[in-house]
Amino acid sequence: MTNYIDEKFYNLVEEIEQLNFYEIYTHMVKSFKSIPLLTQKSLEKYFNNYPYWGQFNIEDENLEVFYKKAVIFKENLNDYVWLYNELKDYRSKYLLFSILNNFYNFDFFSLKNSKEFMFKQYFDLNIVPKCKDEVFVDIGSYVGDTVLDFVESYGEDSYKKIYCYEITKDILEQSKINLQNLNNIKFVNKAVANMSGEIGIEKNDSSLSANKTSISATEKVKCIKLDDDIKEPVSIIKMDIEGGEKDALLGAANHIVNDLPKLFISVYHNNSDLFEIPKMIKNMVPSYNFYLRYYGGCVYPTEIVLICLNKNN
Fold first, then answer.
1. Which of 8, 36, 198, 311 is most buried, judging by how many CB atoms fall within 10 Å of its CB?
2. pTM for the whole thing?
3. Where do the domains of the chain lie, and which CATH numbers do they carry?
Protein backbone atom coordinates (compact mmCIF):
# COMPACT_ATOMS: atom_id res chain seq x y z
CA MET A 1 0.00 0.00 0.00
CA THR A 2 1.45 3.32 -1.07
CA ASN A 3 -0.99 5.95 0.19
CA TYR A 4 -3.95 6.55 2.48
CA ILE A 5 -6.57 5.72 -0.17
CA ASP A 6 -5.02 2.31 -0.81
CA GLU A 7 -4.80 1.81 2.94
CA LYS A 8 -8.46 2.72 3.51
CA PHE A 9 -9.67 0.44 0.73
CA TYR A 10 -7.61 -2.61 1.63
CA ASN A 11 -8.26 -2.25 5.35
CA LEU A 12 -12.00 -2.27 4.61
CA VAL A 13 -11.62 -5.30 2.35
CA GLU A 14 -9.59 -7.12 4.99
CA GLU A 15 -12.19 -6.39 7.67
CA ILE A 16 -15.07 -7.68 5.53
CA GLU A 17 -13.03 -10.69 4.40
CA GLN A 18 -12.72 -11.92 8.00
CA LEU A 19 -16.50 -12.07 8.54
CA ASN A 20 -19.12 -14.62 7.63
CA PHE A 21 -22.31 -13.63 5.83
CA TYR A 22 -24.38 -13.22 9.00
CA GLU A 23 -21.73 -10.99 10.61
CA ILE A 24 -21.59 -8.78 7.52
CA TYR A 25 -25.37 -8.46 7.38
CA THR A 26 -25.64 -7.78 11.14
CA HIS A 27 -22.98 -5.08 10.93
CA MET A 28 -24.81 -3.36 8.06
CA VAL A 29 -28.12 -3.41 9.96
CA LYS A 30 -26.43 -2.06 13.11
CA SER A 31 -24.79 0.73 11.10
CA PHE A 32 -28.13 1.63 9.52
CA LYS A 33 -29.87 1.78 12.91
CA SER A 34 -27.21 4.15 14.21
CA ILE A 35 -28.17 6.90 11.77
CA PRO A 36 -30.99 9.38 12.59
CA LEU A 37 -34.52 7.93 12.43
CA LEU A 38 -35.60 10.60 9.95
CA THR A 39 -32.81 9.52 7.60
CA GLN A 40 -33.81 5.86 8.05
CA LYS A 41 -37.39 6.64 7.04
CA SER A 42 -36.22 8.74 4.11
CA LEU A 43 -34.12 5.84 2.85
CA GLU A 44 -37.03 3.44 3.30
CA LYS A 45 -39.19 5.67 1.13
CA TYR A 46 -36.44 5.97 -1.47
CA PHE A 47 -35.84 2.21 -1.66
CA ASN A 48 -39.57 1.62 -2.15
CA ASN A 49 -39.94 4.35 -4.77
CA TYR A 50 -36.97 2.97 -6.71
CA PRO A 51 -36.93 -0.80 -6.06
CA TYR A 52 -33.68 -1.59 -7.87
CA TRP A 53 -31.83 -3.17 -4.95
CA GLY A 54 -34.45 -5.19 -3.04
CA GLN A 55 -37.41 -4.84 -0.68
CA PHE A 56 -37.23 -2.63 2.39
CA ASN A 57 -39.67 -2.28 5.29
CA ILE A 58 -38.35 -1.19 8.69
CA GLU A 59 -41.50 -2.06 10.66
CA ASP A 60 -41.63 -5.60 9.25
CA GLU A 61 -37.84 -5.95 9.54
CA ASN A 62 -37.70 -6.82 5.85
CA LEU A 63 -34.26 -5.43 5.01
CA GLU A 64 -33.65 -7.34 1.80
CA VAL A 65 -31.53 -4.48 0.43
CA PHE A 66 -28.92 -5.19 3.10
CA TYR A 67 -29.24 -8.95 2.69
CA LYS A 68 -28.44 -8.67 -1.02
CA LYS A 69 -25.54 -6.31 -0.37
CA ALA A 70 -24.14 -8.75 2.21
CA VAL A 71 -24.35 -11.59 -0.34
CA ILE A 72 -22.34 -9.51 -2.82
CA PHE A 73 -19.74 -8.68 -0.17
CA LYS A 74 -19.32 -12.34 0.74
CA GLU A 75 -19.35 -13.76 -2.78
CA ASN A 76 -17.85 -10.97 -4.90
CA LEU A 77 -15.39 -9.08 -2.73
CA ASN A 78 -12.58 -10.06 -5.11
CA ASP A 79 -14.51 -8.46 -7.96
CA TYR A 80 -14.39 -5.13 -6.13
CA VAL A 81 -10.65 -5.61 -5.64
CA TRP A 82 -10.28 -6.34 -9.35
CA LEU A 83 -12.15 -3.14 -10.21
CA TYR A 84 -10.06 -1.11 -7.76
CA ASN A 85 -6.88 -2.26 -9.49
CA GLU A 86 -8.34 -1.50 -12.93
CA LEU A 87 -9.29 2.10 -12.10
CA LYS A 88 -6.87 4.62 -13.57
CA ASP A 89 -6.93 7.49 -11.09
CA TYR A 90 -7.22 7.90 -7.34
CA ARG A 91 -10.40 9.92 -7.56
CA SER A 92 -12.02 6.78 -8.98
CA LYS A 93 -10.38 4.56 -6.37
CA TYR A 94 -11.48 6.80 -3.51
CA LEU A 95 -15.03 6.78 -4.89
CA LEU A 96 -15.08 2.97 -4.96
CA PHE A 97 -13.91 2.91 -1.34
CA SER A 98 -16.60 5.47 -0.45
CA ILE A 99 -19.36 3.40 -2.07
CA LEU A 100 -18.36 0.22 -0.23
CA ASN A 101 -17.86 2.14 3.00
CA ASN A 102 -21.38 3.52 2.67
CA PHE A 103 -22.87 0.08 2.02
CA TYR A 104 -21.02 -1.46 4.96
CA ASN A 105 -20.73 1.35 7.55
CA PHE A 106 -23.38 3.81 6.35
CA ASP A 107 -20.65 6.41 6.24
CA PHE A 108 -21.81 9.64 4.60
CA PHE A 109 -18.59 11.66 4.87
CA SER A 110 -16.45 9.93 2.25
CA LEU A 111 -19.40 9.73 -0.18
CA LYS A 112 -19.97 13.47 0.17
CA ASN A 113 -16.28 14.07 -0.55
CA SER A 114 -16.52 11.98 -3.71
CA LYS A 115 -19.23 14.03 -5.39
CA GLU A 116 -18.31 15.99 -8.52
CA PHE A 117 -19.14 19.68 -8.66
CA MET A 118 -16.80 21.15 -11.26
CA PHE A 119 -17.97 19.49 -14.50
CA LYS A 120 -21.26 18.48 -16.08
CA GLN A 121 -22.52 14.96 -15.36
CA TYR A 122 -20.69 12.40 -17.54
CA PHE A 123 -18.32 14.95 -19.05
CA ASP A 124 -15.26 15.28 -16.81
CA LEU A 125 -12.83 17.49 -18.72
CA ASN A 126 -9.87 15.97 -16.89
CA ILE A 127 -10.71 12.63 -18.50
CA VAL A 128 -12.18 13.78 -21.83
CA PRO A 129 -10.86 17.32 -22.40
CA LYS A 130 -12.21 17.81 -25.94
CA CYS A 131 -14.59 16.33 -28.50
CA LYS A 132 -14.79 16.96 -32.23
CA ASP A 133 -17.12 15.60 -34.95
CA GLU A 134 -18.49 12.90 -32.66
CA VAL A 135 -21.32 10.50 -33.47
CA PHE A 136 -22.94 10.49 -30.04
CA VAL A 137 -25.55 7.90 -29.06
CA ASP A 138 -27.54 8.90 -25.96
CA ILE A 139 -29.44 5.84 -24.72
CA GLY A 140 -31.96 6.94 -22.14
CA SER A 141 -31.84 10.53 -23.36
CA TYR A 142 -34.79 11.67 -21.19
CA VAL A 143 -35.58 15.35 -21.96
CA GLY A 144 -32.27 16.03 -23.71
CA ASP A 145 -30.45 17.27 -20.62
CA THR A 146 -27.31 15.20 -21.29
CA VAL A 147 -27.13 16.42 -24.88
CA LEU A 148 -27.37 20.03 -23.68
CA ASP A 149 -24.60 19.36 -21.14
CA PHE A 150 -22.46 17.79 -23.87
CA VAL A 151 -22.83 20.77 -26.20
CA GLU A 152 -22.21 23.23 -23.35
CA SER A 153 -19.08 21.30 -22.36
CA TYR A 154 -17.55 20.86 -25.83
CA GLY A 155 -19.31 23.28 -28.21
CA GLU A 156 -21.64 22.86 -31.16
CA ASP A 157 -18.78 21.67 -33.39
CA SER A 158 -18.23 18.74 -31.01
CA TYR A 159 -20.54 16.43 -32.95
CA LYS A 160 -21.59 15.43 -36.45
CA LYS A 161 -24.73 13.62 -35.34
CA ILE A 162 -26.55 12.75 -32.12
CA TYR A 163 -29.00 9.87 -31.67
CA CYS A 164 -31.44 10.23 -28.76
CA TYR A 165 -33.09 6.95 -27.70
CA GLU A 166 -35.98 7.23 -25.23
CA ILE A 167 -38.73 4.69 -24.46
CA THR A 168 -41.36 7.16 -23.21
CA LYS A 169 -42.91 9.01 -26.16
CA ASP A 170 -44.09 12.08 -24.20
CA ILE A 171 -40.61 12.56 -22.77
CA LEU A 172 -39.07 12.28 -26.23
CA GLU A 173 -41.46 14.96 -27.50
CA GLN A 174 -40.27 17.26 -24.72
CA SER A 175 -36.65 16.60 -25.69
CA LYS A 176 -37.45 17.69 -29.26
CA ILE A 177 -38.58 21.04 -27.86
CA ASN A 178 -35.54 21.36 -25.59
CA LEU A 179 -33.10 20.56 -28.41
CA GLN A 180 -34.86 22.42 -31.24
CA ASN A 181 -31.98 24.87 -31.65
CA LEU A 182 -29.47 22.10 -32.36
CA ASN A 183 -28.89 20.47 -35.75
CA ASN A 184 -28.42 16.83 -36.75
CA ILE A 185 -30.31 15.26 -33.84
CA LYS A 186 -32.21 12.02 -34.54
CA PHE A 187 -34.96 11.22 -32.03
CA VAL A 188 -35.75 7.52 -31.66
CA ASN A 189 -38.71 6.17 -29.66
CA LYS A 190 -37.22 2.70 -29.15
CA ALA A 191 -35.78 0.58 -26.36
CA VAL A 192 -32.16 -0.51 -26.77
CA ALA A 193 -31.39 -4.04 -25.60
CA ASN A 194 -30.02 -7.36 -26.86
CA MET A 195 -33.13 -8.33 -28.81
CA SER A 196 -35.40 -7.15 -31.60
CA GLY A 197 -39.19 -6.93 -31.39
CA GLU A 198 -41.42 -5.31 -28.78
CA ILE A 199 -41.04 -4.89 -25.04
CA GLY A 200 -43.22 -3.37 -22.30
CA ILE A 201 -42.74 -0.06 -20.51
CA GLU A 202 -43.03 -0.19 -16.72
CA LYS A 203 -44.01 3.27 -15.47
CA ASN A 204 -42.56 4.62 -12.22
CA ASP A 205 -45.04 6.65 -10.15
CA SER A 206 -42.28 8.69 -8.49
CA SER A 207 -40.45 9.89 -11.58
CA LEU A 208 -40.84 9.48 -15.34
CA SER A 209 -37.04 9.35 -15.53
CA ALA A 210 -37.24 5.93 -13.82
CA ASN A 211 -39.53 4.36 -16.43
CA LYS A 212 -37.96 1.09 -17.58
CA THR A 213 -38.56 -1.86 -19.86
CA SER A 214 -40.41 -4.92 -18.60
CA ILE A 215 -41.55 -8.10 -20.32
CA SER A 216 -44.86 -8.13 -18.44
CA ALA A 217 -45.97 -4.49 -18.91
CA THR A 218 -48.91 -3.92 -21.28
CA GLU A 219 -47.77 -0.65 -22.89
CA LYS A 220 -45.29 -1.59 -25.60
CA VAL A 221 -42.39 0.02 -27.43
CA LYS A 222 -40.23 -1.25 -30.27
CA CYS A 223 -37.01 -2.87 -29.07
CA ILE A 224 -33.77 -3.05 -31.07
CA LYS A 225 -30.09 -3.90 -30.89
CA LEU A 226 -27.92 -0.85 -31.41
CA ASP A 227 -25.76 -2.90 -33.78
CA ASP A 228 -28.80 -3.40 -36.03
CA ASP A 229 -30.24 0.11 -35.74
CA ILE A 230 -27.15 2.24 -36.43
CA LYS A 231 -24.95 1.28 -39.37
CA GLU A 232 -22.39 4.11 -39.23
CA PRO A 233 -19.47 4.06 -36.76
CA VAL A 234 -20.21 5.69 -33.41
CA SER A 235 -17.68 7.47 -31.20
CA ILE A 236 -19.62 8.06 -27.94
CA ILE A 237 -22.22 5.90 -26.20
CA LYS A 238 -23.95 7.05 -23.02
CA MET A 239 -26.40 4.74 -21.18
CA ASP A 240 -28.74 5.42 -18.29
CA ILE A 241 -31.62 2.99 -18.67
CA GLU A 242 -32.67 1.89 -15.19
CA GLY A 243 -30.99 -1.49 -15.07
CA GLY A 244 -31.06 -2.36 -18.77
CA GLU A 245 -27.46 -1.36 -19.36
CA LYS A 246 -25.98 -4.87 -19.55
CA ASP A 247 -28.46 -6.03 -22.21
CA ALA A 248 -27.96 -2.84 -24.19
CA LEU A 249 -24.18 -3.26 -24.09
CA LEU A 250 -24.50 -6.80 -25.44
CA GLY A 251 -26.66 -5.47 -28.26
CA ALA A 252 -23.99 -2.86 -29.05
CA ALA A 253 -21.03 -5.28 -28.88
CA ASN A 254 -20.06 -4.90 -32.55
CA HIS A 255 -19.97 -1.11 -32.30
CA ILE A 256 -17.92 -1.32 -29.11
CA VAL A 257 -15.39 -3.81 -30.51
CA ASN A 258 -15.06 -2.19 -33.95
CA ASP A 259 -15.53 1.53 -33.23
CA LEU A 260 -13.96 1.72 -29.74
CA PRO A 261 -16.30 4.55 -28.66
CA LYS A 262 -15.98 6.50 -25.45
CA LEU A 263 -18.44 4.91 -23.02
CA PHE A 264 -20.36 6.69 -20.25
CA ILE A 265 -22.41 4.04 -18.44
CA SER A 266 -24.59 4.24 -15.31
CA VAL A 267 -23.52 1.42 -12.97
CA TYR A 268 -25.81 1.66 -9.94
CA HIS A 269 -29.22 0.26 -10.97
CA ASN A 270 -28.41 -3.31 -9.88
CA ASN A 271 -26.42 -4.62 -6.93
CA SER A 272 -23.74 -6.16 -9.16
CA ASP A 273 -23.52 -3.60 -11.99
CA LEU A 274 -20.56 -1.82 -10.38
CA PHE A 275 -18.21 -4.70 -11.18
CA GLU A 276 -20.16 -6.77 -13.74
CA ILE A 277 -20.42 -4.00 -16.33
CA PRO A 278 -16.66 -3.20 -16.32
CA LYS A 279 -15.92 -6.93 -16.62
CA MET A 280 -18.28 -7.22 -19.61
CA ILE A 281 -16.60 -4.29 -21.34
CA LYS A 282 -13.10 -5.55 -20.53
CA ASN A 283 -13.99 -8.90 -22.08
CA MET A 284 -15.11 -7.11 -25.24
CA VAL A 285 -12.15 -4.72 -25.46
CA PRO A 286 -9.18 -5.45 -23.14
CA SER A 287 -7.58 -2.09 -24.02
CA TYR A 288 -10.27 0.03 -22.35
CA ASN A 289 -9.23 2.12 -19.34
CA PHE A 290 -11.78 2.71 -16.56
CA TYR A 291 -12.73 5.71 -14.44
CA LEU A 292 -15.58 6.24 -11.96
CA ARG A 293 -17.31 9.54 -11.26
CA TYR A 294 -20.09 10.35 -8.79
CA TYR A 295 -23.00 12.79 -9.13
CA GLY A 296 -25.44 11.58 -6.45
CA GLY A 297 -26.12 12.49 -2.83
CA CYS A 298 -24.24 11.66 0.37
CA VAL A 299 -26.76 9.25 1.99
CA TYR A 300 -26.91 6.39 -0.54
CA PRO A 301 -24.79 6.07 -3.70
CA THR A 302 -26.65 6.61 -6.96
CA GLU A 303 -25.65 8.42 -10.17
CA ILE A 304 -22.41 6.45 -10.43
CA VAL A 305 -20.89 6.73 -13.90
CA LEU A 306 -18.31 4.39 -15.42
CA ILE A 307 -16.17 6.12 -18.07
CA CYS A 308 -14.35 3.84 -20.50
CA LEU A 309 -11.67 5.08 -22.90
CA ASN A 310 -9.61 3.01 -25.27
CA LYS A 311 -6.01 3.49 -24.12
CA ASN A 312 -4.74 3.36 -27.71
CA ASN A 313 -6.68 6.51 -28.67
1. 8
2. 0.95
3. 4-114 (no CATH), 134-266 (3.40.50.150)
